[in-house]
């Protein structure tokens, strides 16, 4: 059997080799069931034997017979070590603020379970089996926004998850009701955990929250950057720009893979468009940067996403705990719980997300200005002056972009010492992940407004038709959003376009036509 996790019949099997992106998303978002592989159960039993052998040792062993953090020099009597682990969970479940989203908490629980399955933490198999049973029963621990500094693990979020497995605190059941954890476990036939040596520590000492949010963010951004390519191409078309600059040989002169892919996407969208300016009578030597340089900017976003994915994949294959049980049976303290690698790329993604949105807003703005939109009405209004068209839609974009620029300020450059200066440098990776989620929500809305605006401009250029790909996107959009006319309540149009960005239906409409022509959008 392969030691890496595998999906069989929609069941995610956790082995000692970690998880894949698709598995994390399947469990976190789609509720896929999980099970523990035989290799994981065997590895956990083997490492637990090491911990059991240390339980009665008179020498101090961190997390087994000592306190935690700045209290690590305090020896704990044998009869109090179970209480030590319970007290750790209860005291660390100190989160505050709004409730964290279900998909994030499910990813958090899953990734902690994945580390337990490596057999490097020293917990009993029953601990992992309880986590798996809770996931399969749709039990989602209540976790608060604030409480993690991204070092020594996502302590408070993970402690709230562990607390639920003890039958304490609150959870969301499979129906989404907030109920006592004890009641939810009982209803699902799950015995609450009774922790033994080291097990409480092993349940909270991981980067699982920030990693889960990173995996979800990368999944979303991969789709959004392709949707941004579609929007940019439709803007070039609606502004009667040129596709000559996207030629493959020109892009190959600067061989960044992301740039190559974005340019290829834009060429595919623009293929066969009667709206694209031809050399005869073409008076613009070059389009503006927001049009001409879209592959360069979008491509750099793509390359940043893939760098972040490399980091995430390494972390998905990791066993994060302190102390850790090594394959040769040693129990060693370490610093692998520090979230710096994840925090840095989360911040990097927030930067490129803000820039992706910023360029989208600039293209939208060009459509609304009669000095730059090449023959269209001011603000794409039906009767400028009486009507305002998309004037305030661009304001909405601008407000979001401004917010995204603020969210691009890195969290990982901050550090507040904690635990009586024992933990004197922290990553703030959880905070980086939380703000990235807001950024991703914002960029989807900005791209939706650009698509809505480009579509309106194309309709206003009738009877000249757009490309076959853009025509398919227009048909899909017009199934929910009416075409140009006098001013109407605009928020529902924006909401409908945003919904089609999120569900991928606009991208699917484009991809279908590209596929029929023998190509693909990437």
Automatic annotation (TrEMBL):
One of its GO terms (biological process) is L-histidine catabolic process to glutamate and formate. Its main location: cytoplasm. Its EC number is 4.3.1.3. Keywords: Histidine metabolism, Lyase. It is an enzyme of class 4 (lyase). GO terms for cellular component: cytoplasm. One of its GO terms (molecular function) is histidine ammonia-lyase activity. PROSITE patterns: PAL_HISTIDASE. Belongs to the PAL/histidase family. This is Histidine ammonia-lyase. It comes from Lacisediminihabitans profunda. The gene is hutH.
């Amino acid at each position: 059997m392969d030691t890496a996790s595998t999906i069989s019949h929609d069941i995610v099997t956790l082995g000692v080799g970690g998880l894949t992106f698709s598995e994390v998303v399947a469990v976190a978002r789609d509720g896929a069931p999980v099970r523990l592989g035989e290799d994981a159960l065997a590895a956990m039993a083997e490492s637990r034997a090491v911990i059991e052998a240390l339980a009665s040792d008179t020498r101090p062993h961190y997390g087994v017979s000592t306190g935690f953090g700045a209290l690590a020099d305090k020896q704990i009597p044998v009869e109090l070590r179970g209480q030590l682990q319970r007290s750790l969970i209860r005291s660390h479940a100190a989160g505050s603020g709004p409730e964290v989203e279900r998909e994030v908490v499910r990813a958090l629980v899953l990734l902690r379970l994945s580390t337990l399955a490596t057999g490097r933490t020293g917990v009993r198999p029953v601990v992992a089996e309880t986590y798996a049973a809770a996931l399969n029963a749709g039990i989602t621990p209540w976790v608060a926004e604030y409480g993690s500094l991204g070092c020594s693990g996502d302590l408070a979020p993970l402690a709230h998850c562990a607390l639920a497995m003890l039958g304490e605190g609150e959870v969301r059941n499979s129906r989404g009701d907030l109920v006592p954890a004890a009641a939810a476990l009982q209803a699902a036939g799950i015995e609450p955990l009774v922790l033994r040596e080291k097990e409480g520590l092993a349940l909270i000492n991981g980067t699982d929250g920030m990693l889960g949010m990173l995996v979800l963010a990368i999944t979303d951004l991969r789709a959004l950057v392709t949707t941004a390519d579609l929007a940019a191409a439709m803007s070039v078309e609606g502004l009667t720009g040129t596709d000559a600059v996207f030629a493959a040989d020109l892009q190959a002169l600067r061989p960044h893979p992301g740039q190559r892919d974005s340019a290829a996407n834009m060429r595919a969208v623009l293929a066969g468009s009667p709206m694209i300016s031809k050399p005869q009578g073409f008076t613009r030597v070059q389009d503006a940067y927001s049009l001409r340089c879209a592959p360069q900017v979008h491509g750099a976003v793509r390359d940043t996403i893939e760098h972040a994915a490399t980091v995430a994949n390494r972390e998905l294959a990791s066993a994060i705990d302190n102390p850790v049980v090594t394959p040769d049976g040693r129990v060693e303290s370490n610093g692998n719980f520090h979230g710096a690698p994840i925090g840095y790329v989360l911040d990097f993604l927030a930067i490129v997300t803000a820039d992706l949105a910023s360029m989208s807003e600039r293209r939208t703005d060009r459509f609304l200005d009669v000095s730059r939109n090449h023959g269209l009405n001011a603000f794409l209004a039906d009767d400028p002056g009486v009507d305002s068209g998309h004037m305030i839609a661009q304001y909405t974009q601008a407000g979001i972009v401004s917010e995204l620029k603020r969210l691009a300020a890195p969290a990982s450059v901050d550090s507040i010492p904690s635990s009586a200066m024992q933990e004197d440098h922290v990553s703030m990776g959880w905070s980086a992940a939380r703000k990235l989620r807001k950024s991703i929500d914002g960029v989807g809305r900005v791209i939706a407004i650009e698509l809505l605006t480009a579509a309106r401009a194309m309709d206003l250029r009738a009877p000249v038709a757009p490309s076959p790909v853009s025509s398919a996107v227009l048909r899909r959009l017009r199934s929910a959003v009416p075409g140009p006319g006098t001013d109407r309540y605009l928020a529902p149009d924006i909401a409908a376009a945003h919904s089609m960005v999120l569900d991928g239906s606009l991208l699917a409409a484009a991809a279908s036509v590209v596929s029929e022509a023998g190509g693909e959008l990437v």
